């Protein structure tokens, strides 16, 4: 029988919803056209970290002289590093094998497309198309690399994050690499391969790399790239790409100066953004609306414009982050299968880290965004060299790689944005995510109270969502926690 209670398209965060449905005795179908586990496991954040950590270690060894330790240039074993990466990716086989043993669950390996509001056709290689029906559909089909239309690019050949963690993974680091794009993926791979000795050139259309981050942070990272031997070409359009069979040549033009440059490289890595996978789903046949860029429109309950169809993860266009998709899956699971009151998603405190060198982490608004909203605010910075933990790591005030935290607060001491560039920034950021989320959650709950009750809440707990709990806490000394805790002293 091809009728299911829940049909899930995509095997990343969608598996969390599947598990909850199966626990309630529902009959489920999961459709996956690639490896099971989703982008994060098979071609994203997990395998890339198997490469990032060794690259980080190489950079730390190279800088060891600053703390009085002299070492030779580190050597690396690419085969060992690669094997560790493939061990993580190959976990998809374990996932698929386990799923195949679960009662009430049917796996379909192929591409899915809607044929109506409650039916899909599944196309599998070597098999006839199969029609299935469902009561509820969860679309978690993700996104893919957006390849720019450039003359000669297809014939010259290139690598994307999908093919890199697949058939085009190099047997050894390339001698030279040109990266098209200057966002998160581009920055991480620039760090990885430059640390392994590859001559890296980053080609960006924007005026600066990591343009979504604070301007001083993107400038800081840009300087560190250059000191690491990474060439950065900003404001650059790609005119054409060619190849002589051994080398590839990228003709670029600076949009401001009109200066033209030829970038010569062994390989090209396309990391110029992502696009929605919705274009293969025939969403119009189910009445599911998308925006102008193809991202599925969802409301605060992750509902689409079609009844009994929901969307989560990359495909709804609201941040391409696995932890955001996991969060959405938890919310949707509660709303679909719990007797509790329906819960809305909140994107007020979405954190992320760019695992480049130096590491960049952020939650909340940039100073520019705060200004545009007309919110009264204060901003302050604290540098690694200003705390013992940072000085122990060898950072001095005069060092060009002396990272910092930038804190943005409102007049009521509410934390509006936290931006960190430097070692362990992901760890340093997380407590602020908890603190900010507490404030937003309280505000959400307060909407159900009357005016007098809200005033009472403020009297009882006036510090919710502010940085006051940090000021009232003991901070381990000496530790890097002092970097973020002591920045608030600069507001007084």
Features:
492 residues; alpha/beta; FAD/NAD(P)-binding domain; Enolase-like, domain 1; 3 domains; 7-stranded mixed β-sheet; 5-stranded antiparallel β-sheet; globular
Could you walk me through the main structural features you see in this protein, from its secondary elements to its overall organization?
This protein is α/β, with parallel strands linked by helices and 492 residues long. The protein has three domains: 3-145 and 275-337, FAD/NAD(P)-binding domain (3-Layer(bba) Sandwich); 153-272, FAD/NAD(P)-binding domain (3-Layer(bba) Sandwich), CATH 3.50.50; 358-491, 2-Layer Sandwich (Enolase-like, domain 1), CATH 3.30.390.30. Helix content is 32%, strand content 23%. The chain has helices at residues 14-23, 38-43, 45-62, 78-89, 91-99, 153-156, 161-164, 184-195, 215-227, 322-337, 367-372, 388-392, 425-446, 451-460, 468-471, 481-485; strands at residues 3-9, 28-32, 105-109, 111-116, 119-123, 130-139, 143-145, 176-180, 199-203, 231-233, 236-243, 248-254, 260-265, 267-270, 274-276, 309-311, 351-354, 360-364, 377-383, 404-410, 415-421. The strands form five sheets. Strands 1, 2, 3, 4, 5, 6 and 16 form a seven-stranded mixed beta sheet that branches. Strands 17-18-21-20-19 form a five-stranded antiparallel beta sheet, sandwiched between helices. The chain has a four-stranded parallel beta sheet with strand order 10-9-8-14. Helix 1 links the parallel strand 1 and strand 2 (28-32). The model has no long low-confidence stretch (mean pLDDT 92).
């Amino acid at each position: 029988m091809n009728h299911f209670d829940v049909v899930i398209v995509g095997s990343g965060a969608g598996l969390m919803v599947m598990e909850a449905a199966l626990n309630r005795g529902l009959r489920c179908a999961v459709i996956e056209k690639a490896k099971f586990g989703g982008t994060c496991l098979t071609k994203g954040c997990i395998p890339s970290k198997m490469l990032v950590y060794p690259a980080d270690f190489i950079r730390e060894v190279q800088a060891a002289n600053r703390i009085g330790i002299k070492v030779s240039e580190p050597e690396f074993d690419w085969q060992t590093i690669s094997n560790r990466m493939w061990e993580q990716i190959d976990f998809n086989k374990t996932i698929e094998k386990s799923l195949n043993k679960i009662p009430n669950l049917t796996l379909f390996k192929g591409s899915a497309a809607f044929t109506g509001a409650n039916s899909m056709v599944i196309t599998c290689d070597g098999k006839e198309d199969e029609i299935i029906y469902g009561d509820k559909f969860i679309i978690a089909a993700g996104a893919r690399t957006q390849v720019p239309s450039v003359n000669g690019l297809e014939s010259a050949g290139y690598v994307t994050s999908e093919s890199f963690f697949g058939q085009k993974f190099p047997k050894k680091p390339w001698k030279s690499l040109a990266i098209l794009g200057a966002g998160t993926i581009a920055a991480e791979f620039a760090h990885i391969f430059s640390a392994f000795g590859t001559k890296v050139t980053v080609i960006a259309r924007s005026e600066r790399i990591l343009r979504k981050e604070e301007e001083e942070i993107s400038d800081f990272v840009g300087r560190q790239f250059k000191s690491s031997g990474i060439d950065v070409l900003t404001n650059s359009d790609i005119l054409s790409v060619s190849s002589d069979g051994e080398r590839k040549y990228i003709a670029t033009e600076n949009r401001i100066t009109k200066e033209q440059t030829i970038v010569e490289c062994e390989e090209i890595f396309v990391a110029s953004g992502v696009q929605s996978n919705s274009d293969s789903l025939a969403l119009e046949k189910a009445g599911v609306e998308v925006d102008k860029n193809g991202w599925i429109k969802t409301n605060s309950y992750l509902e689409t414009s079609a009844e009994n169809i929901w969307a989560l993860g990359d495909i709804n266009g609201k941040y391409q982050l696995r932890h955001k998709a996991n969060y959405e899956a938890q919310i949707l699971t509660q709303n679909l299968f719990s007797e509790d009151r329906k819960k809305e998603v909140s994107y007020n405190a979405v954190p992320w880290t760019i695992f480049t060198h130096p590491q960049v982490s952020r939650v909340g608004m940039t100073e520019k965004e705060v200004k545009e909203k007309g919110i009264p605010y204060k901003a302050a910075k604290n540098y690694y060299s200003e705390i013992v933990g940072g000085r122990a790591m060898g950072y001095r005030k005069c060092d060009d790689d002396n990272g910092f935290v930038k804190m943005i607060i409102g007049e009521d001491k509410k934390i509006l944005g936290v931006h960190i560039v430097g070692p362990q920034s992901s760890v340093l950021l997380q407590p602020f995510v908890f603190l900010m989320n507490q404030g937003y959650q309280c505000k959400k709950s307060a909407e159900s109270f009357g005016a007098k009750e809200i005033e009472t809440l403020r009297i009882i707990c006036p510090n919710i969502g502010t940085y006051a709990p940090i000021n009232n806490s003991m901070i381990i000394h000496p530790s890097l926690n002092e970097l973020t805790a002591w920045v608030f002293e600069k507001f007084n």
